[in-house]
Amino acid sequence: MKHLGLLTRLIAGIIIGTVIGLLGGWLGVADSVGFTSVVRLFATFNSLFSTFLSFLIPLIILSFVTVGLAELGKKANRLFGVTLLLAYGTTVCSGFLTFLLGKALLPSLIQPISGDIAEAASAQPFFSIDIPPVFGVMTALILAFVLGIGMANSKGTSLLSVCRDLQGVISLVLGKIVIPLIPVHIAGLFCNIAAEGRLFGTVKMFASLYIIIIALQLLYIVSQFGLASLICKKNHFKSIRNIVPAYFTALGTQSSASTIPVALECAYSNEVDEDVADFCIPLCATINLNGDTITLVLGAMGIMLASGLTPTIAMFAPFIMMLGITMVAAPGVPGGGVMAALGLISSMLGFTNPMQQLIIALHFSQDSFGTATNVSGDQAIALIVNKLDQKPAVTKKAR
Q: How far apart are CA 165 and CA 374, in angstroms?
């Protein structure tokens, strides 16, 4: 299965888990033979995987946010500040606009699912293990801010080297253990959902969310080039056709980093200066994750509604502001956005383990479109930064 793409493995996991869950549900989850034992085996795996993930989340936040803030803070040139401000500002704006559209559309499309998904699953694992995290999510976040900002403003490099080593270890764990096991985890999730008779409601919720998320992501791309047109005082809507290779490359690779060579060629095609493109495109591949933001905000709202909860602006405003910071330092691996955001989702939105499993499944299964949206937004930011970089030269000539 390793030679298959992640999306293919995810779809296979959903299908296999659903079939086993349906058979287990028909036979009765209380039985201990046949498919019902497999349902319990999946429940055992999900219990262990969720426990390990809960243990890992504070370490993900600490390592990536600390190093991200420290390295960003050490880059003091003007273009870097402008690019960072644009990336964060557009991320937060896309989060709030997504929330407003979600409030208008989702309540009529998503109804509470019978058998509250916020509650524990009825198929009990054979055994479970308790692994308390080293520290809580908010402790990790505040510690990351203190260390990251502190290292950005100090001359010492020893602590930063240690944090980079920790980041490398966590990246290895994500890349070699967590990400490859995600399809199995999602198979277990859908196995449990099908066994409990919640399959139709969950699939309907996912379908509604997929349609709106992809529509919003495409709308975001158009709006970004509209913003570029406004700032540059030039029609950049026609520039969208030049970014198509980058969009489809990201769609296929599911990685902003892997798309950088193609994205650079697209930026050159849009007449972005080479020095600006060479700086802006690789940087934005790390810090500009609007596609992930749209998915996480709308997905969280949909899952809350399906759980019988009401998403409010008081709840989501601080979440979106913090999400903008967390996305800047998200791990550069497929699904890195949701992995970095899980801590915020659980601590600020109160997501239970079953709800977290659903947001993981939703994010991973459409991550290709989110990555393509991120990459497309990078191109618009590069156009804006290129225009702003030209202003001093124009002013000087005028004198």
A: 27
